[in-house]
Amino acid sequence: QVQLVESGGGLVQPGGSLRLSCAASGTIFSIDDMGWYRQAPGKQRDLVAAIISGGSTEYVDSLKGRFTISRDNAKNTVYLQMNSLKPEDTAVYYCNAEIITDWGDRLDSWGQGTQVTVSS
Known about the structure:
Elements: E1 2-7, E2 10-12, E3 18-26, E4 28-39, E5 46-51, E6 57-59, E7 67-72, E8 77-82, E9 91-101, E10 106-110, E11 114-118
């Protein structure tokens, strides 16, 4: 069994910053891609950023320069640093990871989501 647990969401004023964390635990042999998605009310879940095990990153063009994804492979953790936040960044943010278990299974795993609200 594997589990992803997000933390770091909350209420922040426009222009502020938040750092999200997502820690994977369980019978993990290795983790390939890790990423962050977000879903605003009434909208579909969209990719925010992704990072592969070697460190290469991918961002939605509209978020480049404000959001930074990183990972600590030793801790099985992925981070999302969000700066200059705008009200339109308000959403539930979900962590995703491609996990290879100790038994060789490949699991597409999701966290439970963390709410980010940008409002004055």
